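Go through this chain.

——
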Amino acid sequence: MTRAYLALGSNLGDRLAHLQFAVDALAATDDVRVTAVSRVYETAPVGGPRQDAFLNAVVALTTDLAPDGLLALAQRIEADAHRVRAERWGPRTLDIDILVYDDLESADPVLTLPHPRMWERDFVLAPLRDVAPELVEASRTWEGVRETAVTLTIPWRNDSAPSP
């Protein structure tokens, strides 16, 4: 099993429901085990057209899927959440980015790993520190990132039940 971290974001419709939908869909997938979910943060949009604020979170998981398989899964979940790719960095019901896939480094333009802009984005680093504090500098502070009072849950699966 490979450890991976995925960033989730939503700024259209029921933002929290879209994030929970992503967690549920990931957890329901064979070859994926969601191990942790960050707190939910609200952030101003970065780049692109004028739009509403985002809710953001990061999911930690282990998977037997190859990187391209995990990307295909993320894109399928986005499509199931009615994501429309009308303009770059435009508003969206759901955005899922693979941040880190174990120690893999790839310059492939379809899937660059680790995510090429993650270290510049407070809306990624704040929730990433919740689930992988070893990856984010402890003294780092955030601009434009507000922790919300809402949380996401990891659905329980029979194959992920703790051993007695």
